Amino acid sequence: MHTFRFFAVVAACVAMAQSADACTGITLKSKNNDVIVARTIDWSGTEMNNIYAIVPRDHEQQSLLPDGTAGGLKFKALYGYVGMAVQQPEFVVDGTNEAGLSAALFYFPNYGEYKPYDEMDQDISLADFQVVSWILSRFSSIDQVKAAINDIRIINIDPSASTVHWRITEPSGRQVVMEIVNGVPNFYENEIGVLTNSPGFQWQITNLNNYVNLHPGGAGPTQFGPITLRAFGSGSGFLGIPGDFTPPSRFVRAAFFKTYSLQQDNAYDTMQQAFHILNNFDVPLGVQFAVGRAPNNMPSATQWTVATDLANKVIYYHTMYNRTIRSIDMKNIDFATVPFQYHPLDTAKRQTIVPVQID
User: Fold this and answer.
1) Is 358 a member of any domain?
2) I want to staple 302 with a disulfide (CB 3.0 to 4.6 A). Which of 229, 241, 282, 314 is the partner?
3) Domains of the chain: total
4) Burial class of residue 169 in the structure, from the number of CB atoms within 10 Å of its CB (0-12 exposed, 13-18 middle, 19+ buried)
5) Cα–Cα distance measured from residue 345 to residue 303, given in angstroms and rounded to the nearest whole number
6) Distance from C-alpha of 16 to C-alpha of 42, rounded to nearest angstrom
7) Which residues pair with 86 in a beta bridge?
């Protein structure tokens, strides 16, 4: 890799690590057991180069290393896949392969820790922002990933950058969270189907117990001495649910919203439901900075949202510029012959508006 490109990549990774602090993921299942994995991707510091990549079978990749070369782990795609990437097509942060396996990266500051890069392990070293590409290229199941993870060494391109963790989902709905702590990969079965950022996944699950009082529907009326207390409106059973954008609060909110949302009949309706739920996690840019300190005026800190139908292998997304939902039907892609390619998520950075025709 050319030196100037390497440093641009490192700068991008550091920028993402410093501002990617609000990604929220949910997983839904329809009545006919179709699985939808969905998430927001949030960077508040700068507008990223948001792209999708189509990767054919036999496509070869090699990991970046801290010394500025692409001299790390080499891997060839056994499976074709479509990935949503940031900055470079190598940096797939969410995607699905033709076997139906989905993988996604989420920011995980202060709680993860990789083993330090060792030149003796150069051939098996894999940059954390290329782990999703490696998973989608090589595996069709969670157990295959678990069996292979100790054969590689996941590293930071820049040791000063933060760590990430990963969500891996099978078409059946089985999902795990992978976190590397003290250099050791840990896998946690994710039965709740929610993921945000720090602290670790097990802590987030335990923290749900702090909200044992929450329930759908209404609360009261309650006799309070000589007076009767009544709710001001519907939904009072959720009084006390945290409304800020910190990862623990978003985890709680996402867990309750997805758990009590009405299960839909099919994958298409469930996909739409996923977008509606994640609308609650669209982050207005100004709320993450002190007054007058926002570094830019993007439409949103939530740069794009994606929902993937694992049963039918269709990827749906909208962006901060255009909330019209677009789709990529993987069944229409011949991964044996399609060339490697990548394209911007938005061909034009403008909202599609359809005028209402008045007779």
Assistant:
1) no
2) 282
3) 1
4) buried
5) 10
6) 9
7) 50
DSSP string, 209-241: GGGTT--SS----EEETTEEE--SSTTGGGTT-
Spatial distance between the Cα atoms of 161 and 70, rounded to a whole number of angstroms: 18
Find tokens 């519907």 and name the residue.
Answer: 234
Dihedrals φ, ψ of 209, to 5°?
-65, -20
| 169 occurs within a structural domain | yes
100 phi-psi bin (left φ>0, alpha ψ -120 to 50, beta other):
left
Is 356 domain-assigned? no
- At position 260, the amino acid (one-letter code) is Y
Going by C-beta distance under 8 Å and a sequence separation of 6 or more, which residues neighbour residue 268? 309
Residue 230: Cβ within 10 Å count: 12
Cα(first)–Cα(last) distance of the chain, in Å?
A: 60
d(CA 74, CA 63): 7
Is this model's pTM higher than 0.90 or not? Answer: yes
List alpha helices for the chain, DSSP H: 3-19, 131-138, 142-148, 201-207, 247-260, 267-278
Q: Which two tokens stand for residue 149?
A: 């993870």
Show the domain range for 174. 3-344
Secondary structure element (H or E) that encloses residue 54, with its range: strand 50-55
Q: How far apart are CA 319 and CA 6, in angstroms?
A: 27
* Environment class of 205 (CB within 10 Å of its CB; exposed 0-12, middle 13-18, buried 19+): middle
Residue 16 to residue 162: CA distance in whole angstroms: 9
Q: How many CA atoms lie within 13 A of 85 on its CB side?
A: 24
Q: Could you report the per-residue pLDDT of 223-272, keeping only the tens digit for each? A: 999 999 999 999 999 999 999 999 999 999 999 999 999 999 999 999 99
> Beta-carbon neighbour count of residue 271 at 10 Å?
24
Give, as one character, the DSSP assignment of residue 62: E
Cα–Cα distance measured from residue 7 to residue 167, given in angstroms and rounded to the nearest whole number? 28
- Asked, for residue 247, whether it belongs to a domain, the answer is yes
CATH code, domain with 212: 3.60.60.10
pLDDT in tens, 172-222: 999 999 999 999 999 999 999 999 999 999 999 999 999 999 999 999 999
